[in-house]
Every structure is written in C-alpha cells, then in structure tokens.
Amino acid sequence: MNTSFKNTARLLGAGLRALLVLTVVCGVLYPLAVTGVAQSLFPDKADGSEISDASGRTVGSSLIGQTYNLPKHNTDDPDEAAAPDLRWFQPRPSNGLGTNSVNQRYTLILSGATNRAADNEDLIGWVKDAKAAVVADNSTAAYKVRPQDVPADAVTSSGSGLDPHISPAYAKLQIHRVAERNHLGVERVAALVAAHTEGRTLGFMGEPRVNVLELNSALKDLGKG
User: Fold this and answer.
1) What is d(CA 201, CA 208) in angstroms, rounded to the nearest whole number?
2) What is the pLDDT of residues 177-210, one digit of tens each?
3) Do 170 and 152 share a structural domain?
4) Which of 49, 60, 80, 138 could bridge to 177 as Cys pair (CB 3.0-4.6 Å)?
C-alpha cells in the first residue's frame, strides 16, 4: 500500500513538473522568442501591417478590406443599406468589411463567403444589381461605363469577404468618378492608381492588384496638396 502510494505520488510529481516546464517553455519562452524575432526582422508585419495617415493616426490594416460608405439616414434601422461614398475608390462588395469613411471608425463585423452556387438565383440577382450600380455610379458626363467592361471583382466578394485588394481594371474603371468627385485631374488620379498597382508576387504568383486602403489614403493626401 505504501509502495502504491509512493508510486502514485512520484508519477503525479513528475507530471506536474513536466506541466510546469512545458508551460514555461511553450507558453512563455517560445512566444517571447517568436515575438522578439518578428519584431526585430518584420516589425511592420508583426504589428498587423498597419497603415497610418499623414497625421500618424492608424487608419487600418493593409491586410483587411474596408468599406467607404456615407452615414446612414436612420441609424436605428439595421436593414437600411449604406450608400457608398463615391469620393473614394470602392472595394469588392462584401458584408464582412469594416467601415472606414475617412476612418471615423473601423469595425470588423464578420468574414466568410456566400457559399452559393453560380446558378443560385439570389447570387445572380446580387451580381446583376451590383453591375448596374457599378455602371451607374462610375459613369460621368465625360466617361460612360459599359456593362461588359465591369470586372468580376467589382460584383463578387472574395472567399473570406475581407479582401483588401481590387483588380487594376476595377481601379481604372473608378478613376473618372473619383477625379470628378474630388475636383482632381483624371491624369493625376490615374497616376495615383498606377503608383499603387502591385505586380504578381515574385513575378508569377497571384494577379496584379491595388490595395484600396493604401490608394484612398494617398488620395486623401493628394486632395490636401
């Protein structure tokens, strides 16, 4: 009996010591080491790839998309659709993006895809409505958008619903409207889009893209100049 008790106590003691050692190593030392290396080698990415405006205020992350909408007329009505603020370049459509109209407040709501098939009637209706809105919103007196010129990313959300990028084609489609709304020359806004167009990663991975938050932050600074 005493031998059994001693063996049990010894096993419990060994287990507790192992738990303590692993807690310190895996729960304290390892996270501190990883955090230290990340902060030393990749401080920007380690802090969330934050983007700041000219005043130094953080306006969001380059990894998470944001919407640029006008304030709702009735804040108590959850079903009221927010109208896009057409002074800014618009992101891909998504119900999961945070809000950022000149960064009054950034709130992440949810993420995820619609999970609807390509022949789903609701999805087809959303795409048709989104295409009509893109054509109407981006047509100006001097520039008319044709339905066939609307790229896919202008009317569909990404798999996560949080894509911070749009295609160069969608960014270029918005240039005339943004220039008109901000009283800027089309050439200046086009140059801004070109400067913020990223190529494929390592030259062959992914597609060319434009980060909407970075582009709108530069647009805001351009309007002040």
Assistant:
1) 8
2) 999 999 999 999 999 999 999 999 888 899 999 9
3) yes
4) 138
Pair (10, 65) in one structural domain: no
Stretch among 68-72, 151-155, 161-165, 201-205 having the lowest mean pLDDT = 68-72
Domain count, the chain: 2
User: Do strands 66-67 and 98-99 pair parallel, antiparallel, or not at all (unpaired)?
Assistant: parallel
Whole-Å CA distances, 112 to 64, 69, 116, 162, 177: 13, 20, 12, 8, 30
54 has a pLDDT exceeding 80? no
Verdict on whether the full-model pTM lies above 0.85: no
C-alpha angle with apex 169: 83 to 61, nearest 5 degrees?
60
- Residue 165 CB: number of other CB atoms within 10 A? 25
